[in-house]
Amino acid sequence: MIAFLNFELKDKHFFTNPFLSSTDGYERYASDEWILTQIKALTYKVVNRIILLDEKLTYNIYSGLGGIVYALLRAHKYLNQELSDENGVTNGAAFYYYLDGFLGINVTKAIFHYIKKESFDISATITTVVNILMPEKETIFDGRCGQLASILTLQKEANQFVLDENEIHKVLTKVINTGYDCSVKHLYESPLAFPESNYSGKHSSVSPLPYPVKLLGFLKGLAGILQMLLSFWNYLDDNKKSLVKDTVEWLLEKYEVDKASSSAEKDEMKDIGELCQLWIVAYIVLDDEKYLNAADACCEQIWERGISCEGPGLDNGVSGNGYAFLLMYRLTKNEKYLSRSKMFSLILMDPEFDKLMKESENPFSLFEGWSGALCFLTDILDPKNAQFPFIPISFPQ
């Protein structure tokens, strides 16, 4: 094993990348045997953690027990252990939320029973969720695009096809109508716009309103919404396709401008690794090299920017950034991306990183903690089938 890695604090968000100049000679440390050992060690760490009361009361897949169970399901195929029970996956969360509620819990249950070769039909639950009168929320985190992500996840990980074409059309129409109406009403510069729900009033100026940078992101913003709409491209009519494509192109132009900027806005775009997923899906669906180039530029920016101080999780953490490289490897088969993803595994499991990273309120969770790292390590062992947890991409066969 490497004797030590040198982590120097670059700014309030990042350490310098210890492998920036070269990965030559280091990949041998991240062998399959070493990664398997780390999976087993991390699984032991997660399973034998002290479960505090706050964690017992948090059931969602984002920061709670549901996501931890999902990570253990991912690791299960590498361990010689029986699946015993769902270990705390219960129904105590908001009914229609995906990452932050009951919907994600039920998807995890479906995956659990599928692995055990047991029946667990979630179709009725999903149908109820998409027909419920819910707030005008469209994000993956707690809105209708979370419903779309759940449909993809169930198809790929539990072999369940849970909604008919009409129901899927209904969800897509609600999302796009909300985005179009908001853009027109508030004169946003993007063709589709999804601002904070507490924004009220009409923009009085005749000039376009700038899109808030903090709402451009993946889980709670525009990038994630667009990724889900692209993922159901064949369900859209020509008018809806035009709105989605034009908004993707607008966001790409904004990304290219902000990438070269040193403004305060640039500091807010910390989830650039997750933007990479949008460009990958846009390239697959729209078949335009500029999106592949944007995905590669995202990876380069992550690599040069440094190592996130936010911890090991998926949301702005080291695992989330590492997934950009894994997914690019799956798309392109370029070994550079796989090599760099392995460097992220070395960083994650380095004791010095564990000491220096910011302390999370949910240190073992999927999106904020070590369960995200556990999923990332399992996908490094099987990179040709790598998928970001709960938000999968339909890669070409």
Automatic annotation (TrEMBL):
Transmembrane residue ranges: none
Full protein name: Uncharacterized protein
Stored PANTHER family: LANC-LIKE PROTEIN, LANC-LIKE PROTEIN 3
CC terms in the record's Gene Ontology section: plasma membrane
GO biological process assignments: carbohydrate metabolic process; peptide modification
SUPFAM superfamilies, per database record: LanC-like
Similarity section: Belongs to the LanC-like protein family.
Species this chain originates from: Panagrolaimus davidi
